[in-house]
Design goal:
By secondary structure, this protein is α/β, with parallel strands linked by helices. The protein contains 7 helices and 8 strands; from the N terminus they run E-H-H-H-H-E-E-E-E-E-H-H-E-E-H.
Length: 211
C-alpha cells in the first residue's frame, strides 16, 4: 500500500521548525500556520551570522576586515550551504525533510556547521547539538552514509561601538556521530512532524477583525 505524505504547513520539516515547535508552539503557529514570518526569532547576533553565512556561501568578502579575517580561518569543503532534500519514511507515512549544512564534502560526506556569537561553545555543548545530529540524519537518509567527521566551528563575537564584531578567536569542535544518534533523531523528528500535522489538520485561523 502506498504511504501517504504528511500534510505540513510548509510541506516539509526543517531543524529550525522542530526547535521552534518544541520551544514555543504558539509562536510556531503564528509563523507557520498564520504566515506571520515577522514573528520569527531574530536578533542582531543572528543577523550578523546571516551576513557571514551569505558571504561564505557565495565565496565573497563582507567588507569588514575583522569579519573577513575570521572567515578565512574557517575550514571549508567543496559544497557550501546547499539544500539537502530527502524523505523520512515511517511505517505509515512519508515526511519530507530539508536542511542546509554550512559546508559539505561531496566525497566523504563530512560536514561543518559555523556558529557566531559571544556565548561560549564547548566540546560538550557541540557534541550534544541536535542540529549536528539532524544534518547527519539527512545525509544518512539521502546517501546511506554515516558521517565520520563533523565539526562545529565557532567565531567568537563581542558587542562594540561599531556593532557586533569578531574577537579574533575561532574554535573548532569535532562531533562524534553514530547510527544510534541518527535513529534517535529520526524518531524525534517523526514525533514532532506528526504533532504538527495533527494540529495543522484541525487548525482554524483567527477571525479577521472587521473595520
Amino acid at each position: 500500500m502506498k504511504k501517504r505524505t504528511l500534510q505540513l504547513p510548509r510541506g516539509y520539516i526543517s531543524y529550525s521548525q522542530i526547535q521552534l515547535w518544541k520551544s514555543d508552539k504558539s509562536r510556531y503557529k503564528e509563523v507557520y500556520f498564520n504566515g506571520r514570518h515577522e514573528l520569527g526569532i531574530r536578533n542582531s547576533g543572528m543577523d550578523f551570522g546571516s551576513v557571514v553565512a551569505t558571504a561564505l556561501e557565495n565565496d565573497e568578502k563582507t567588507g569588514d576586515l575583522l569579519t573577513d579575517i575570521a572567515m578565512e580561518l574557517l575550514p571549508k569543503y567543496d559544497i557550501r550551504d546547499k539544500e539537502i532534500t530527502t524523505n523520512l519514511e515511517t511505517k505509515d507515512a512519508i515526511i519530507p525533510l530539508v536542511g542546509r549544512p554550512d559546508t559539505l564534502d561531496s566525497k566523504t560526506f563530512d560536514f561543518r556547521e559555523y556558529k557566531t556569537g559571544k556565548i561560549k561553545w564547548t566540546q560538550s555543548k557541540a557534541q550534544s547539538s541536535p542540529q549536528m545530529k539532524f544534518y547527519a540524519m539527512l545525509i544518512y537518509l539521502q546517501h546511506g552514509k554515516i558521517t565520520k567527521e563533523a565539526y562545529l566551528d565557532w567565531i567568537e563575537t563581542a558587542n562594540t561601538p561599531d556593532g557586533i564584531k569578531p574577537t579574533g578567536h575561532v574554535e573548532s569542535f569535532k562531533v562524534e556521530l553514530s547510527l544510534s544518534d541518527i535513529l534517535t533523531t529520526m524518531s524525534n523528528t517523526a514525533a514532532v512532524a506528526k504533532e504538527i500535522e495533527s494540529e495543522w489538520a484541525t487548525y482554524e485561523p483567527p477571525a479577521e477583525i472587521p473595520w
